[in-house]
């Protein structure tokens, strides 16, 4: 009886040792997989941070370009308003000169008519 129990216990012990070794092997494999996963995660995090910095740099450059564009637009708007003001002033001056010229023309026509009358009288 003791021999049969001893053999049974020996068999159970061997199975337990085998199972323990299998579990140790699985644990070692799992630990190695975790190390690899951590390394991959660290690499991906570095890549992500690098990509995010690139995106931030692009956005900052776009913001700078937008600010420059708005500044240029404002400057051009000021120039356009100045040119429009100058054009209005030029048109006003033209109308004044046109009116003065017309009045001067009428005065000269009257003077010519008067001189023509005088010349006719002298003849």
Task: Specify the biggest β-sheet.
Answer: none
Q: Give the integer mean of the pLDDT values.
A: 94
Number of helices: 1
Number of strands: 0
Separation of the first and last Cα atoms = 175 Å
Q: Approximately how much helix is present in the residues?
A: over 70%
Sheet-strand content, in percent, reads: under 5%
Q: What oligomeric state do these chains adopt?
A: single chain
Classify the secondary structure makeup into a structural class.
Answer: mainly alpha
Gist of the model:
The protein is an all-alpha fold and 123 residues long.
How are the elements arranged and paired?
Layout: H1 2-122
Write up this protein.
With 123 residues, this protein is mainly α. Helices cover 98% and strands 0% of the residues. The chain is rod-shaped and about 175 Å long. The relative contact order is 0.03. The mean pLDDT is 94.
Task: Write a concise keyword list for the protein shown above.
123 residues, 98% helix, 1 helix, mainly alpha
